[in-house]
From TrEMBL:
It comes from the Eukaryota. Keywords: DNA integration, DNA-binding, Endonuclease, Hydrolase, Metal-binding, Nuclease, Nucleotidyltransferase, RNA-directed DNA polymerase, Signal, Transferase. Residues 543-590 form the Integrase-type domain. One of its GO terms (molecular function) is RNA stem-loop binding. Belongs to the beta type-B retroviral polymerase family. HERV class-II K(HML-2) pol subfamily. This is ribonuclease H.
C-alpha cells in the first residue's frame, strides 16, 4: 500500500498519526492553468479558501504543481462547494485499490444485541497527506484582469477528488479502531468508510466499547458528529433501518417516472441494491430488464409498459411488507433452492422453533438475469446457486451450511448426486446434508416447484447418431441425416446458382432444378422433392461412400455414411463406427455403361476428394 510516516497534524488532539505515501508514476511536475472565474464565483472561492486555511486544511505554497479549482452552488441559498479538478494529477498516481470489496451484511448483527451508530465528521479533511505528497495538490486563486499575482495553496489533508482518498480513509480509520477491537473482542465493530456500528451482547459491554471507540478515533485526530450518534432503535445505517430483530430499507418508495434509459438504469440500480434482502426475483424484474433492450444512448426514450408497471407495484409491495432478520448466534445456517418458474434462486435462512414464525430470512441469492450460456439446465442452475450461496455465507459468517434443501424428486436427487459433475463440484468439501424435505412453511411452499428427472440419456443409445446444422451455407448435414437426394429444387433461377454448390451437387449425382427456368426475377414457393422413395424426406438407407485410409493411402469401401460435418465424417465399418477427416471421404456412385471406361475394366477411377 505504501509507507507509514509520522505527522504533526493536529498535535494538540492526537497521540500519533500515520498516513500512507502515494506512489507516483512520474516526478515531473504537472501544471494545469487555472481558468478565469466570474466575480461572484471568485468571491465565493476566496471565502471558502479562507475557511479551509483557518481550519488548517491548506497552507500557502510555491509548488511547481497546479490544478484548477472552481465552485458550485449547494442546495442551501447562498452556500457554495469548493471543488478541485484533480484529473491530471490522478493520471500520474498509482491505483491503490479498495480495501472493502462490498458492504457488510447487516443480517450478521446478532439478534437483540444493543447497537450504537457513530458518524465521523469530515473524515477526509481529518486525515493528513504525506508531507512529500502534499505540495503536489496545489491550486491557485486568480484575480480579475490579472491585477495581482496568483494566491497559491496546497492541501495537507486528503482532498476531495483524489482517486486514492477512499482507500486511504478506509485504512486510516481501520488503524484507529484496532486498539478498540483488541480491547473488546466480544463486541462487533463494523466500519464502512466514515460510518461506524458497534454491537455488544449487553448494554454494559456496549457502553464500554462505545467509549473506547470514541477515545481511539479522537486520539487519531478524527472528529465525531455528536448530533448523529444513534443509541435507540430503530437505527439507520448504510441506507437500512435496523430494529432489535429485523433489517429493512430506509426508503419505502421508489421512482415510477421513467423517461429515458438513464432513468431506467437508476431505477434498476435501486432495486438491485435491495433485492437480496427483499427477495425480488429475476422473473419479477423481467419486464423491467426487457426495457433495457434497444438504443444504448442513456438519453434514448423509454416508457413503462403495463407489465413493467405491474412489476413496480410488486416491488413497492415488497418494500412495505418484506424484511430480513438479524441472525441468532446459537442456530445453524440453511440453504433452500427455490423457484416456482424456470429461474431458480436461493434463500439463506435460520430456523427458530421458539418463534411464532420460525423462518429467519437472512439473504436471497440470485443468478444473473442473462446467463452467458444459451440454456441452463435445472441441475446447472442449482449448482451455481449452491456455489454462490456457500461463498456468500463464508464471506458473511465464516461458516458452511448445515443442510441444503434441493427442489428435486427423490430418484432425481440420487441420480444427480452420482451423475452431475456440476452438482458434485458445487458440493466439494461439503460435510452437511442434502435433502428434498423442506421445512413446513407457507413461504417455502409458495416458492417451491420440484424438478423431475429429465428423459435424457447420459450415454449414447444403440441407434443412429444424427448431426443437425441449421446453417443454410451447407447441404452436408442434410445429406448425413436424410441421405443423398435424387433431386433438389430451389426457388432461385439457374443464373443464381453458385459454383461451389453446383460442383458439390454434381459430385454427389444430384439433379438440380429451379423454380422458374430462365426467369430468376420471380421465385416460386419452396418445393421439397423426395429423398429416395420417401415423401416425408427421410431415407431409411444411408448413402454409400468411399474412404481413403490415411495410413496406407488405399481406397476402402463402400461404407455407409453415418454423419458428416464441417471437416469431419463418420462411417459404419465392419468393426464399428470410424471417424476421419472429411477430405478422405468421397461419394460412391454406381457406374453406368456410358461412364464405364473399357481401359479400367468398369472400375471407378480414383479421385482425391
Amino acid at each position: 500500500m505504501g509507507r507509514e510516516v509520522g505527522s504533526g497534524f493536529l498535535v494538540g488532539v492526537t497521540v500519533a498519526l500515520t498516513t500512507l505515501k502515494l506512489t507516483w508514476k512520474t516526478d515531473n511536475p504537472v501544471w494545469v492553468d487555472q481558468w478565469p472565474l466570474e466575480r461572484k464565483k471568485l468571491s465565493a472561492l476566496k471565502n471558502l479558501v479562507r475557511e479551509q486555511l483557518e481550519k488548517g486544511h491548506i497552507v500557502p505554497t510555491n509548488s511547481p504543481w497546479n490544478s484548477p479549482v472552481f465552485v458550485v452552488r449547494k442546495k442551501a441559498p447562498g452556500s457554495w462547494r469548493l471543488l478541485h479538478d484533480l484529473r491530471k494529477i490522478n493520471e500520474v498516481i498509482e491505483e491503490m485499490g479498495p480495501l472493502q470489496l462490498g458492504l457488510p451484511s447487516l443480517s450478521m448483527i446478532p439478534r437483540d444485541w444493543p447497537l450504537v451508530i457513530i458518524d465521523l465528521k469530515d473524515c477526509f479533511f481529518s486525515i493528513p497527506l504525506h508531507p512529500d505528497d502534499a505540495p503536489r495538490f496545489a491550486f491557485s486563486i486568480p484575480s480579475v484582469n490579472r491585477e495581482e499575482p496568483l494566491q497559491r495553496y496546497h492541501w495537507v489533508v486528503l482532498p476531495q477528488g483524489l482517486k486514492n482518498s477512499p482507500t486511504i480513509c478506509q485504512w486510516f480509520v481501520a488503524r484507529a479502531l484496532c486498539p478498540a477491537r483488541e480491547k473488546h473482542p466480544g463486541a462487533k465493530i463494523i466500519h464502512y468508510m466514515d460510518d461506524l456500528l458497534i454491537a455488544a451482547p449487553t448494554q454494559q459491554e456496549l457502553q464500554r466499547a462505545r467509549d473506547c471507540v470514541i477515545t481511539e478515533v479522537q486520539n487519531a485526530g478524527l472528529e465525531i458528529s455528536t448530533s448523529k450518534i444513534q443509541e435507540i432503535a430503530p437505527w439507520k445505517y448504510l441506507g437500512w433501518k435496523i430494529t432489535e430483530q429485523t433489517v429493512k430499507p430506509q426508503k419505502i418508495e421508489i421512482r415510477t417516472e421513467v423517461n429515458n434509459l438513464q432513468d431506467l438504469q437508476q431505477l434498476l440500480g435501486e432495486v438491485n441494491w435491495m433485492r437480496s434482502i427483499l427477495g425480488i426475483t429475476n422473473d419479477e424484474l423481467a419486464p423491467l430488464f426487457n426495457l433495457l433492450k434497444g438504443d444504448s444512448n442513456i438519453k434514448s426514450h423509454r416508457s413503462l409498459t403495463p407489465e413493467a408497471r405491474e412489476a413496480l407495484e410488486k416491488i413497492a409491495g415488497a418494500l412495505q411488507q418484506r424484511q430480513a432478520h438479524r441472525f441468532v448466534t446459537s442456530l445453524p445456517f440453511f440453504l433452500a433452492v427455490l423457484g416456482e418458474k424456470i429461474q431458480l434462486y436461493g434463500l439463506i435462512f435460520q430456523w427458530d422453533s421458539s418463534q411464532k414464525d420460525p423462518l429467519l430470512i437472512l439473504e436471497w441469492i440470485f443468478l444473473s438475469y442473462r446467463s452467458p450460456r444459451t440454456i441452463l439446465s435445472s441441475l446447472e442452475m442449482i449448482a451455481q446457486i449452491i456455489i454462490k450461496a456457500r461463498t456468500r455465507l463464508q464471506t458473511m459468517a465464516g461458516k458452511d451450511f448445515t443442510t441444503i434443501y434441493l427442489p428435486l424428486k427423490k430418484d432425481y436427487l440420487d441420480w444427480a448426486l452420482q451423475k452431475s459433475e456440476d452438482l458434485q463440484i458445487a458440493l466439494l468439501d461439503y460435510s452437511g446434508v442434502c435433502t428434498i424435505h423442506f421445512p413446513s412453511h407457507r413461504l417455502l411452499k409458495a416458492k417451491l416447484s420440484f424438478r423431475e428427472k429429465p428423459k435424457i440419456s447420459e450415454v449414447p443409445l444403440d441407434a443412429i447418431t444424427v448431426f443437425t446444422d441449421g446453417s443454410g451455407k451447407t447441404h452436408k448435414s442434410a445429406f448425413a441425416s436424410l441421405g443423398v437426394p435424387q433431386e433438389i429444387k430451389t426457388d432461385n433461377g439457374p443464373t443464381y446458382i453458385g459454383k461451389v454448390l453446383d460442383k458439390f451437387l454434381k459430385r454427389w449425382g444430384v439433379h438440380h432444378t429451379f423454380g422458374i427456368p430462365h426467369s430468376p426475377t420471380e421465385p416460386t414457393p419452396p418445393i421439397i422433392r423426395h429423398f429416395s422413395n420417401s415423401t416425408r424426406a427421410k431415407l431409411k438407407e444411408n448413402p454409400l461412400v468411399l474412404v481413403r485410409n490415411p495410413e496406407t493411402g488405399q481406397i476402402e469401401g463402400p461404407f455407409k455414411l453415418i454423419t458428416w460435418g464441417k471437416g469431419y465424417a463418420c462411417v459404419s465399418t465392419a468393426v464399428g463406427p470410424k471417424w476421419l477427416a472429411a477430405r478422405h471421404v468421397k461419394p460412391y456412385r454406381v457406374q453406368t455403361q456410358a461412364e464405364t471406361d473399357p481401359k479400367t475394366g468398369g472400375r471407378e477411377v480414383d479421385t482425391q476428394t
